[in-house]
Amino acid sequence: MDLSVAHDKLIKYITDRVHLNATEIEVIKEKFHLRKLSKKDYFVQTGSTNFQQGFVVSGALRVYYTDPKGNEHVMYFAFSDWWVGDLAGFHFNEAATLSVQALDESYILEVSKEDIEDMYIKVPALERLFRIMAQRTLAVLQKRFLLTISAHAEERYKELLQRHPGIEQLVAQHQIASYLGILPESLSRMKKKLYVSSPNKK
Amino acid sequence: MDLSVAHDKLIKYITDRVHLNATEIEVIKEKFHLRKLSKKDYFVQTGSTNFQQGFVVSGALRVYYTDPKGNEHVMYFAFSDWWVGDLAGFHFNEAATLSVQALDESYILEVSKEDIEDMYIKVPALERLFRIMAQRTLAVLQKRFLLTISAHAEERYKELLQRHPGIEQLVAQHQIASYLGILPESLSRMKKKLYVSSPNKK
DNA sequence: CGCGACGTTGATTTGCCTCAACGATTGTGG
DNA sequence: CCACAATCGTTGAGGCAAATCAACGTCGCG
Predict the structure, then answer these.
(1) In a domain, B102, yes or no
(2) Nearest neighbour of A139 by CB, restricted to B92, B146, B150
(3) Are B142 and A88 in contact (CB under 8 A)?
(4) CA–C1' distance A110–D28 (Å)?
(5) Which residue of chain B comes nearest to A139, CA vs CA?
(6) CA-wise closest residue to B130 among B99, B93, B90
(7) What is the CATH number of the domain that holds A27?
(8) pLDDT tens for the 202 residues of chain A, in order
(9) Domain total in chain B
(10) Is A36 inside a domain boundary?
(11) Structural domain for B26, as ranges
């Protein structure tokens, strides 16, 4: 993965959403640094106070929470063109409660909170971009929250498959169970039940 | 409740967070319209396509979701200085999936999506304010989501009491149960259990 | 006053967890 | 490159938190 190719991908992502002039593009390129993660490497770990955000250029990652009992809960999976980081920690300057780990070799354009604040001044369009992104992410999280409290695991599983076809080829089953908020054993039993009662096989 | 008092409250809220000049203040005052809600009146109802947001000047409201089975789930309660509206519908221009209902007589400064978009141009500081608000709301919702999937109802109940002391005097018990994601019967049993095992009474 | 909304209590059910065991696959160090 | 270990998915037995269904007393209010 080449730095300029990564930068071009980021600039395309941004200019698809807001207008930038040539100077602004240069400012942005200076601030985002390419980082390679091997499988199982961490981009952010619980307790970190680095406050960075990352734009995923390629690869696959999981963003998860480790609760006080030590159980891990997947918040979301991230692929090309997604953003990763601990938003709560980032916003409140608190130690990260989330971790971000590569599920495969991944390339990420990393930016520090300081540099983002600096860019808000030098590139006002980013203020707009990040407002829109925050509002959209908020709307998406709200939907996920409402589904989680109103529907059983089986319904949430079907919704996931519908919203993200092919996810089962990309991430392991126990990661999907974690995303759904159930144990791997429960997902295994659920799939068996769905398969037996409605055998859409061969 | 007087319009100019309400406007002053809003302007104080905003200028506590970002800088405004006199002209900008006038633009904002023109866009926010005062609305009185009696107890049980709705500010937003499921299916609405008005895309308005509201700044709560006084009173108390509940923001809730009605699932396909007809069960209501309280997203949050709103009091003075909070914002209410269906953020998902607002952002995606979809019919509202949330409802906002007054629990007591309330006064709200209402603004349409159109006028907000207009203000982003005339008052750039609002772009920043709404970015910050969206990011903070997102961080708060993330914490709520993570607590919901990782902790039992009893722990969530204690967290609510700690974060919002006095909530039990402001809203009915079945509303609190709905916020916690459990049935009124379950909350009743839980309180009984907590009371018996740890009688902090007289 | 009378009705409806609210909170409580009881009996039973259920969705998912916990703990345990066991093949199958994957990965790795010698 | 193979042998062994670790990880993963599956299956079983039993348990628990909260839902469901039902009944009933109390209170506030039209």
Answers:
(1) yes
(2) B92
(3) yes
(4) 60
(5) B88
(6) B90
(7) 2.60.120.10
(8) 899 999 999 999 999 999 999 999 999 999 999 999 998 999 999 989 989 999 999 999 999 999 998 899 999 999 999 999 998 888 899 999 999 999 999 999 999 999 999 999 999 999 999 999 999 999 999 999 999 999 999 999 999 999 999 999 999 999 999 999 999 999 999 999 987 655 543 3
(9) 1
(10) yes
(11) 3-125
